[in-house]
Design a protein that fits this description.
alpha/beta, Rossmann fold, 7-stranded mixed sheet, 12 strands
Length: 267
Amino acid sequence: MVGARRRPSAYAGIELLNYKPKMKLPLFIILPLLHLLPLFGFSVYLSPESVYAFDTYTSQRQEMVQEQLAGRGVKDKKVLDAMSKIPRHRFIDESMRSRAYGDHPLPIGEGQTISQPYVVALMTETLKLKPTDRVLEIGTGSGYQAAVLAEIVKEVYSLEIREKLEKKASRLLGELGYKNIKTKFADGYYGWEEYAPFDAVIITASANHIPPPLIKQLKEGGRLIIPLGSTLYYQTLTLVTKKSGELEVEQMGGVAFVPMTGRAQKD
């Protein structure tokens, strides 16, 4: 939708909300045209939806969802819709954006990676999230997993032990318009007690045990997913459900994640 509105300064403004152009023009043509509008007394506001509409990676993203996710059995429409929308290429270095939608993880700096799309979808789907849920993420990384969660649930709280990554992810998530994500530079081993309890906890780094504070901060009936096992080689993706104070454990298959650092490495 394109609408004109008056601003207090008495000049016209154009706000692009859910506008989807009928003609697909490359960004190098569209953006210069938008920058010319202020010369004629207009100001331009691009919402996240507008950014997605002008996204030149749309076809790659749709192919990723259809072949890598739905093609491997991911059925949750909320997850598929979220990953169809989110510009994954924005979460990695510009030099690697041509590989952003490939079937593999990619480095994001600081010795960390953005997970393979299928693994992101699988972990998210397994948590069986509801729109009213409050989710704790351990390991913000690039911010991509937090964005996927934020498209589905009410609130996301994400902890990152590497300060540079936390600042970068927080800035990008803000640019993309996510207001239901809080990030913090901290050791995720201890969780985020201020906002506990959580309906779900997702741990995006491997550990040889589940940190006790995270179990304590999980709601009764809540679900926690973690790559559990050796932090040097491969781990088992493990789902834990908290019932009557006890833990029901389900093993889901082999994965390879970077290790959880900080307090987790001391045990």
